[in-house]
Specification:
The complex is a heterodimer of chains A (230) and B (173). Chain A has 11 helices and no strands. Chain A starts with a helix and ends with a helix. With 230 residues, chain A is mostly helical. Chain A has helices spanning 2-13, 18-31, 46-59, 66-76, 82-94, 99-142, 146-170, 172-176, 178-193, 198-212, 222-229. Chain B has 173 residues and is mainly alpha-helical. Chain B folds into 2 domains: 2-129, no CATH class; 134-173. The N and C termini of chain B lie far apart (41 Å). Helix content of chain B is 78%, strand content 0%. The chains are: A mainly alpha (230), B mainly alpha (173). At the A-B interface, helix 2, helix 3, helix 5, helix 6 and helix 7 of A face helix 1, helix 2, helix 3, helix 4 and helix 5 of B.
């Protein structure tokens, strides 16, 4: 279980927090060989919840936050077990919104209901929002300097590399299966090349894609079904 | 006030469509903020996105900078609320009922069906971002090198983000 979780965290996260993942492996090996640590039962105060998420929001650099989240919530604080964490992660990825904020809401709600969700997501957003606003104001004053645009140009190019690598790593499974790959390419071409507006693309490709994966009664025996039809 | 409301509307719409996270809505965000509302130029969009990469936390906090440019502090707040609140509410309510569907076969269908869509959207987001910020051989080289390093080695991406900026500055002066 633990290994599976680590693998998935890494895959979902792409390379971000890779060092953490390596550290996690050591921690996991030391703490629990098989079973992930059980969640603590004492109630978490709102203030403490806020502080933990504030720290996460201030220290998780490089886009992805999920590996940091697991390290803090499952391994260090033991507020959740891995199963709950993964279930939340699946939901975060399926629903709209960023993984980082969706997970904060999920975990906050689990621990302390509505106020918990609120303080967790605020803690996650606040540090970065303040920093980005300060940078934004500096940019408003100095954005035309050639040094600034060179610097940001390089940052943007590196960000392209990061999002590409992250997408390839998250999508490893999808890119290897013909049906999935065709859906990936269809979506890419429709949005990226033909510039179809996003709501239209979502409302057509989404249902199609879910329909293709609809539950079937005799899932393991498509060949038998075909034979029977003949 | 009109701009603030427009910001709220645009980012709320993006919020509920952000299946697959921030990267997935970049093409739509750019087309709305640059082409439709003319709040930003192409270059500014790319630069503000880059700016967001320099801050910790969720990587779409730069929407506040777009809001700030359009309508000052109320604009920044409107963009943030618009982008984070609707998706947040959806997550909150679905999180409460999610466990009830734990055994539903449709849960798996939705997850598996949306997964390739998400990857396609992220690729399209990367593509649109690349067209905006890759303006010459140097930026192309930085993007390729960063991709390769991340695929081949475990490196903290923050280092590469800062490294990319510094390399571009040193080489381009």
């Amino acid at each position: 279980m633990t290994n599976e979780v680590l693998r998935r965290c890494e895959a979902h996260e792409g390379p971000s927090g890779a060092e953490h993942t390596r550290a996690e492996k050591e921690v996991a090996a030391a703490v629990a060989v098989e079973a992930p640590p059980a969640p603590a039962l004492e109630p978490v105060t709102l203030w403490r919840l806020f502080l933990v998420f504030l720290t996460l929001g201030a220290t998780s650099f490089g886009g992805g936050v999920v590996a940091y989240l697991r390290q803090a919530l499952v391994v260090r604080q033991r507020w959740l077990d891995d199963e709950t964490f993964l279930s939340g992660l699946e939901l975060s990825q399926t629903l709209p919104g960023l993984n980082a904020t969706n997970m904060s809401i999920y975990v906050g709600e689990r621990l302390r209901g509505v106020p918990g969700a609120l303080v967790a997501v605020l803690g996650m957003i606040l540090p970065g929002a303040v920093i980005v606003m300060v940078l934004g104001m500096l940019y408003a004053g100095h954005g035309r300097l050639s040094d600034v645009s060179l610097l940001l140009g390089g940052v943007g190019a590196a960000a392209v590399g990061l999002t590409l690598a992250t997408t390839l790593q998250i999508g490893r499974k999808q890119l290897a299966k013909p049906l999935d790959l065709s859906l990936v390419l269809l979506t890419f071409v429709v949005i990226g090349v033909f510039r179809v507006s996003l709501p239209i693309a979502l409302l057509t490709i989404g249902p199609l894609s879910i329909w293709l994966y609809r539950p079937r009664k005799t899932a393991p025996a498509p060949a038998a079904a075909r034979k029977a039809a003949r | 006030m009109k701009d603030t409301l427009a910001l709220l509307g645009v980012f709320a719409a993006l919020s509920v469509m952000a299946v697959g996270g921030g990267t997935a809505v970049l093409p739509e965000m750019k087309s709305l903020t640059v082409n439709q509302y003319h709040w930003l130029s192409d270059d500014q969009f790319g630069q503000i996105y880059s700016l967001g990469q320099l801050a910790p936390g969720p990587n779409m906090l730069m929407v506040s900078v777009i809001g700030y440019r359009v309508a000052g502090y109320p604009g920044a707040l409107a963009a943030l609320i618009g982008f984070f609140l609707p998706a947040g509410l959806i997550m909150f309510f679905c999180g409460r009922i999610w466990d009830r569907f734990a055994d539903s076969p449709w849960k798996v269908a939705v997850q598996r069906g949306l997964a390739p869509l998400t990857i396609g959207l992220m690729l399209a987001g990367t593509w649109v971002l690349a067209k905006t910020v890759i303006l010459g051989p140097m930026t192309a080289l930085i993007a390729v090198v960063v991709t390769a390093i991340l695929l081949l080695r475990h490196v903290n991406p923050a280092l590469l983000i800062f490294g990319g900026g510094i390399a571009s500055w040193l080489l381009g002066r």
